[in-house]
Specification:
The complex is a heterodimer of chains A (about 300) and B (about 290). By secondary structure, chain A is mostly helical. In chain A, about 75% of the residues lie in helices and about 0% in strands. Chain A has helices at about 15-20, 30-65, 85, 90-125, 130-140, 145-165, 170-195, 200-205, 210-225, 225-240, 245-250, 255-265, 270-295, 295-300, and strands at about 1-5, 5-10. In chain A, helix 4 (about 90-125) packs parallel to helix 7 and helix 4 (about 90-125) crosses helix 10. Chain B has about 290 residues and is mainly α. Chain B is about 75% helix and about 0% strand.
Chain lengths: ~300, ~290
């Protein structure tokens, strides 16, 4: 009989026998073999992770290093350090940056306006229809962006020819394309939050006499605020960096930042181009840090 | 409770989005698929009556079959290399909180960085007189510069770089799903880190790893920006051929036929991954 924290354990019972049979009775020793295996394991995992990080960061660091050259040169690291490339960034870059910022904000806002009410139905309706609808609304994510771009280009041609609607080469057409591409992210981010929210707060609000609309605006939306911020930030970052859509849907007088960089990089590499690229990387890093600060990256990116 | 009054009003919540999807997704997709049933006209339009000629002659062409093979090769190599790089990162991020959060921010920032900027970085790194060649020469491993840019290898490197962050984020929920108590119990009973990893951690993450691999395959198949910029005109994967047919040659029926094949190629891993996720209960990230 062993007395253990007030409870009496009968060591002779069959249950105890079988439980003890699988446990080693010798005191656990930190053997040399185990210590070596531990060290080697730590080393291998650490090394693999370090290789991964260097692989990820190397090209971005290179962009920054290359941008500090004196223009004709493009050495890494620069033989002569200078910020002259940043001073010679052309006005086209800034106007493209302006277009991209407007595009990102407007498409993120529109995507939220379209998708958030729908999420409440998708997350709560238990019918078979909502499952099918959910799959359909997420499906643009599986279609390669180049295919979405070409189909929309031809779709706009088709709408122009049959209904006389001019949407090709317009800012609105570009916005619609971006809303389509980013809506699946909004749906994915918000659905899990709405499911986790449950109905009890809204029921409380209604029982206290608030109208459905008032409950939606004053209870439901504030409760999923973090998911809304996360989706907005995520979609802005995604739409900020889309080459294929803008490549097909912008006209000569409408250039987004990614397309500006894309076109420039097919002509000639210069320190100025690298300075432009470095600015976009800085914006992405800043956006990531802000997202991490406000919502937390784990919350924003993982369900 | 019925949000917004009656049941019909709740369905009403979904109607604006549904209309948007019909106008900007469903109809354009169907319209484009229809184009593949015509012969190409002279000025980017179509001519003749519906026929399967365009599709069947496309499928029989050598350059097209070669493009499909090259796309599948790129996807398979990229998936394997991506998993090898992403798995240790996801493991460290999940198991070591403090280093993990720094790593996670790095991974996310890389993911959100412009694809063109990343490619520009690789162009310098992989150049024949770039840091990698210089370093290898200095170490005495090679005597003449390796051709690392404007070829298939460069496309693989660039594509893997674009997808590793996505794979890490998709692997994290799988890695977090392994109960810490199990690993601690194994440690307590004398298992080494390595034993814990390959007897407890790895087997439980394997279904997730496979479905992330399939996801990477699907994303790589549709990748465009990185292959077109790093391939230097020598790598003809499907997405690049679609782009060339739709812009320079204005041959939309052929572009549509290629898009259908590309969609089929993407659908295979997506359907497999769905089937797999029905059977197990692991989760993947938002992406």
């Amino acid at each position: 009989m062993v007395r253990e924290s007030g409870r009496v354990l009968d060591l002779r019972s069959p249950a105890a026998d079988s439980a003890w049979a699988s446990v080693s009775v010798e005191p656990l020793q930190d053997t040399l073999a185990r210590r070596v295996a531990d060290k080697l394991g730590h080393l291998a995992v650490g090394l693999a992770a370090i290789i991964g990080v260097i692989f990820l960061v190397a090209p971005l660091v290179t962009v920054f290093l290359a941008s500090f050259n004196v223009p004709p040169a493009l050495d890494v690291p620069p033989s002569r350090w200078s910020t002259v490339a940043y001073e010679s960034i052309s006005g086209q870059f800034y106007s493209a940056l302006g277009v991209s910022i407007r595009l990102a904000i407007i498409s993120a806002a529109l995507s939220l306006v379209f998708a958030v009410p729908a999420v409440f139905w998708l997350a709560r309706s238990k019918g078979k229809m909502s499952g099918i609808a959910d799959g359909f609304f997420r499906s643009p994510l599986q279609v390669p962006e180049i295919v979405i771009a070409v189909t929309l280009y031809q779709g706009y041609v088709f709408y122009g020819a049959t209904f006389g609607i001019t949407i090709r080469h317009t800012f609105l057409g570009l916005v619609a394309a971006h809303v389509l591409v980013i809506t699946p992210y909004v749906i994915a981010t918000c659905t899990s939050r709405v499911v986790a929210l449950g109905m009890k707060y809204e029921e409380a609000g209604q029982n206290l006499g608030a109208s459905s609309f008032r409950v939606f605006v004053r209870v439901s939306l504030p409760m999923i605020k973090q998911a809304l911020i996360a989706s907005a930030a995520l979609t802005m970052l995604v739409s900020f960096d889309n080459v294929p859509l803008a490549l097909f849907l912008t006209g000569p007088d409408l250039t987004t930042l990614p397309v500006f960089l894309f076109n420039q990089s097919q002509q000639q590499f210069s320190a100025v181009l690298y300075a432009c690229a470095a600015v976009t990387v800085l914006i992405a890093v800043a956006g990531t840090l802000v997202l991490d600060r406000i919502v937390g990256l784990r919350k924003a990116l993982l369900r | 409770m019925k949000l917004f009054g009656g049941r019909s009003f709740r369905v009403g919540l979904v109607i604006p989005l549904a209309i948007f999807y019909v106008v900007f997704f469903l109809l354009p997709q169907l319209n484009f698929a229809r184009l593949s049933l015509y012969e190409p006209g002279l000025y980017g339009d179509t001519q003749g009556s519906p026929t399967l000629n365009t599709l069947s002659s496309l499928l029989a062409r050598d350059f097209f079959q070669h493009a499909v093979i090259q796309t599948v090769q790129l996807c398979m190599i990229s998936s394997i290399v991506t998993l090898l790089l992403a798995y240790p990162l996801a493991y460290v991020i999940v198991r070591h909180r403090r280093i993990g959060s720094i790593l996670f921010v790095t991974v996310a920032a890389t993911m959100f960085s412009s694809a063109v900027a990343r490619v520009l970085g690789w162009q310098v790194l992989l150049a024949s007189n770039g840091p990698i060649n210089d370093g290898l020469k200095w170490l005495g491993i090679i005597s003449e510069s390796l051709q690392l840019s404007a070829n298939f290898a460069a496309v693989v490197i660039g594509t893997v770089h674009a997808i590793v962050p996505i794979a890490v984020i998709a692997l994290m929920p799988t890695c977090q799903g392994v109960p810490l108590a199990q690993m601690q119990a194994a440690r307590g009973m004398g298992a080494s880190e390595w034993t814990v990893f390959h007897r407890i951690f790895f087997p439980q993450t394997l279904p997730g790893v496979i479905s992330v691999g399939l996801l990477v395959f699907a994303i790589t198949a549709g990748a465009f920006t990185t292959p077109v910029l790093l391939g230097g005109g020598r790598v003809g994967v499907l997405s690049i051929l679609i782009y060339e047919n739709a812009t320079f040659q204005l041959n939309f029926p052929v572009a549509a036929g290629m898009s259908i094949v590309l969609l089929a190629l993407v659908a295979v891993p997506v359907v497999l991954a769905l089937a797999l996720s029905r059977r197990s209960t692991h989760k993947t990230g938002v992406l």
